[in-house]
Amino acid sequence: MNKFTFSFSTLLGLIICVWAVPFLSAQTSPSGGIPVHTVVTVEARHGSNPPAVNREDVMVTEGHDRDPVTEWVPAQGDHAALEFFILIDDSSNATLGTQLDDLRKFIDGQPATAKIGIAYIQNGMALIVQNLTSDHEQAAKSLRLPLGRGSGEASPYFSLSDLVKRWPASSARREVLMVSNGIDLYYGQADLLDPYLDAAIHDAERGGIVVSAIYTPAAGHLGHSYWLDYWGQLYLAQLAEKTGGESYYIGFTGAPVTFVPYLEDVAQRLNHQYFLTFLAKPPKKSGFQRVKIRTEVSNADLVGPAEVWVPAN
Q: N or C: which end of the chain has fewer CB within 10 A?
């Protein structure tokens, strides 16, 4: 009797323990987030010099939930490495030739920690004429006049995706300055639902690549079509906004007199960037998650991607 009672009690206790352990584990173990890494630019709301922003000042939210920020590292010193491609539309008007010296001076002004590459948008591909190099003089020499007929009927965003997909992963910042009219004749619609633009944005976001854009008119009829230029500039603005970059233009169908103020702003942005790591909510399956990155520091805006790629746990 005693033996039976002891055995039954022991068995009952084991059953209770086996049932309770997962429950207790779920209650006491912290829910592990998924580390997400991205590059964020600090901009000044007024003036040109943004204030200092510390890790505790950075807030990342997914919907109504706030994600823990684990790292906020200035892209300076040992972390200043930069890989920067200038991607020029070969269908651009020949007036772009007057801006090449501005681009060369920008390249020459980059620090030794920056590698510069030059590529051209041509028939849906990125024609790389200079691979990423620390030889800034060589990169500057590789710039040439646009052909005035490079993209044909292909989408310029095919070329951006092509460049991004062929770009080896790196611990350095990776950024693109796209010089184009932004017109997508392949899509051929006048709305903000261009699937090729969306695909290029997602390719850049997944690769952690920041894309900025300077509008320059196309050769021929496209260069003075208000309707097409209107949508092309909107596409470039959307591309830059969603990848954490900046878009530059002076108005519809207008060619910039000089790129200098745009390139000065690009250089200013590069000098105020940070590597951000935060813990995203574990998704059921891998995919893009919308995030908001902000701060309450006075006179500071944090500019980063609209979405980040979060792998399943």
A: N
